[in-house]
Amino acid sequence: MSERGAWLHVKASGLDLLLATSDLREVVTATPVALLPGRPKGIQGVVSYQGEFLPVLAWEDLPGGRAADGEPIAMAVLRPRLGLPIQRIIGTLDPPAEAWREVDGEDPAAPWLSGVCVLEEQHLRALDPVRLIALLRRIRVDR
Amino acid sequence: MDQSFDDVWAECEDLFQQAHDTLATLKEPQPAHVVQAAVNALFRNTHTLKGMAGMLGFHNFSRAAHRMEDIFDLMRKGRLRSTDSLVETLESGILALEAGMGELRRGRMEPEDYLHAIRRELGELEALARPAEGGAQDLTSMLDLPADAMKALSEYERTRVTALLMSNLPIQGVAICLDFATFDERLRVLSEALGQQGELISTLPWDVPEAREGLAFLLMAACPAVDLAALTLLEGELITAVLLAHPDRVPSALKEEVPSQPAPPPVEEVPATQAPALAQEVEILRLPAHRVEALEARLMAVGQLRDKASQLVRRNRGALGEHPVALLAQMEEGLLEVQKSLLQMRMVKIESLFSRIEPMVKSLSRDTGKPVKLAFAGGDLELERSLLGRLGEPFLHLVRNAIDHGLEPPSERQALGKSETGSIRIAASQRGRNLRFDIRDDGRGFNLERIESRGIELGLLKEGQVHTAEQLHRLTLEPGFSTQDRASQLSGRGVGMDVVRSEIEALGGEIHLSSEVRRGSLIRLSIPLSRAVVSCLKVRCAGQAFGIPLGSVVRVQAGRALRHGGDQVDVLGLSLPLESLQACLGLPEPAGQQAFVVLGQQGAASRSVSVALGVDEILGRGELLLRSLPELAHAAGIMGGSAQEEGVLWVLDPEAVLGLAMDSLMRRVARV
Predict the structure, then answer these.
(1) Which of B65, B346, B418, B453 could form a disulfide with B49 if both were Cys (CB 3.0 to 4.6 A apart)?
(2) Among 3.90.1280.10, 2.40.160.60, 1.20.120.160, 2.60.40.10, what is the CATH number of B3-128?
(3) pTM for the whole thing?
(4) How close, in Å, is residue B636 to chain A by CA atoms?
């Protein structure tokens, strides 16, 4: 995992998450989300981003995810054009290879994670954008 | 492909568009000088295309463009008269070059002869042209000009002077003295103004009058008289008009000797002041698309700043009063206008696509001996310019197939009790976030038995299995599929329909085929639009604003009685089911609603499916800049959104909402 370079450590959906900086377009200040009536599962609505609508993730719809406490302060924009509301930005990390572990199959969030980084007794889950998008497509169809 | 190459393709597209527009001018009766200006413009267009193709290494294209250029040269020198059949042939030639350019852009090999399909007509035209040598009379000696000015005239200018004098038009001279600093622009302006009065033949250097400074020119034009007052002068500019040659001085014997000298094209008498001048060449400002996109993104950022300001103002409304709110509303209006203007820069009317199809149908109709009545609808709708270029080829394939395979010969149609003239109707309409094209013909329809046996023969279908009509229709879209044993000159080569499918799918669109034996075929193309300006009825429902495209609104009604989902309402003598918009979109049911909107299928007959859609409030109507939703955010019944002062206004997809309403009503019945 370490060959992916730096990671952004954030607090979102009540979880400590790592986002690969190479997967991010940018991190922007949170703006009010326009809620979509009859929204597809996994998406709460859209915000305007670079002249287009950007879908914003509904963490609570993901397995192992839950609704945030309070308003998000920022939004991480993934390269595949998806906004992730974030409660807190903790900093950047470049963990050594030996810090990485496989995702525990019992972890309900496993379908959208790429690995777990164990640093100073903290278990930081790494988000996998490709698996996340695939999951969103799947749960929308299942609905 | 690098960006500079893209620029060349884009410039070629512009040149073809200009050529189509100019040819359209020639289709109407015009004064001689307008015809001449049009032919000159076409000559320049093909000359530029020839040069650009040569530069790119497409030598066969360059040769074909050169041949077209030669025909325009014959016309501009008066050796060929502009007639309907000539314009039709030239249109076919321009279309052939344009289609060929499209193929090259896709990396296809160059054909040997781009103009193969019209080679006979072009040969006839060249043969019809009056020979240059021998019969050409040069009357330039009649011009009252000094010898050095006379020497400066080109062969073309001499030919025009002769032809115009033979056509009984005087040759006028306008001498002007202009300032050094501004002569370039002023010469252009004055030339254009004189060009409005007649055919501008030449601009010659002229002697500067004594005691004057500047640059002098003699503008030579053919017109009965020069209206100097119409040539608005600046302070210090000097102008004089002289008659250079009068046709009365041409010996009558000489006129009789040259019977083949071309007369001006037959035109209706049009007073000089009302003469429809050829559209002035518009300066084309070429911008890379990414610059426009950057501007749109910047504009969106400004919009977001405005949103923040708006939030602040709302929070402090009590202290600030209403004035800042009104100012923000004005700012919103201004921003919307700029956004719409930016969008307009990318859009073209669909009629420019139709104008390319018409001449091809005429030509194919003649070649196949099948009379065709062609009708278009929806030409006023707009689509993105980039889509226009990519749709040309698929349309040509479809129309070609309809004429070649679909329409029966007149004798067969008569025997079937049909009109001898076949019909092809192409209709464009906006459906949801899609632009839909329906291409209908009243021919024989697809021969599904033949398609099935051919599919089995090619190993695309299994023998003994049941194949639905839809499967068989779609089979014709497979690469290499053709039921024709031999390729006709028009189609049946097994290429074309798969090209159509791949091009439409590459645009994110869909193609659907259907037909009825002996009744005809329908080919439906749906192309998604990324952005559009949509006229909507604005309504409020569950505290949110929605837009309903006006094309689908049959009636709006409000009363005192509260209505509920599942009720029946009487509208124009019809009893219609009512469903609340909330129920359609999965929002909490309202206690009751006083207003409703009758939705109907766009373009359908009045008795087709329609539903009364209950809403909380009618807000009015407006033009909305629609942005489509990204795929991950697609929601049933919503075609897109429009950023407004109070947030995003969701624009409903009427067809989808009709479906949702019917589903919801069915559920109500099932619950009962």
Answers:
(1) B65
(2) 1.20.120.160
(3) 0.54
(4) 7
